[in-house]
Amino acid sequence: MLKHTPKSARTRQFIIEKTADLFNTKGYAGTSMSDLTAATGLTKGSIYGNFENKESVAVAVFAYNLNKVEQAVKRYAAGAESSRAVLMAYVAAYRNFIGGEFPGGGCPVLNTATEADDTSPRLRELAAAAIGRWQQQLEAVVEKGKAAGEFRADCDAVQTALSVIALIEGGVMIGKLTNSQQHLDRVLLTVEWLIDNLQRP
Hints:
TetR/AcrR family transcriptional regulator, transcription regulation, TetR_C, mainly alpha, Tet_transcr_reg_TetR-rel_C_sf, Homeodomain-like_sf
C-alpha cells in the first residue's frame, strides 16, 4: 500500500490481508477474536478501533478474497478473442484451484454460501450477490456469442450460466473435500463439454 495512504486505511488493509485466509479457512463462526489478534499481532481494541465488530472484518475480507478470484479469472481471460475463449477462462482458472492463486482455504463464495445461512445474513447476502453477478456475466458472454453467430441461436443463456456455476462450485467442493485436483478436473471436463456444445455445428 502506498505510504501516503492514511494510517487508518493502512491498518484496515493490514487486518484484512492478515485475516483473509483465516476467515476463508475457518469460516465466520469458527474464527474467534483471539484468532484475529494472533494473526495480526494487534490488540482487540486496535481491531475494534478499525472495524465495528467481527462481522465487519468478515465482510471486508469476503470482498478482498472475492476480488482475488475475479482478478485471477480476468488474467486467464485477457486476450480472449471469442466468447468460447472467455468461458474457457473460467475452466483454466479453476484448474489451478488447489495450490494455485486462489485465496487460502479455497473459493470464498462457496465457503461463505455453505456457512452464512446460519451465521450471518449479511455474508449470505454478499455471497448471493456474488453468484448473481457471476450469472449475469456468463449470460452476457453467451448472448454475445449468439449475436456473433458463434453459439447456436437456441442456447439458453440462463441455463448455461447456472449450469457452469453449479458444476464449477460443485467440483470445487468435491476437490476440496477429497483434496483431489483430479476430481475437480473431471468436473471441469464436463464444463468444457457444455461450452463446446454451445457452438454452431
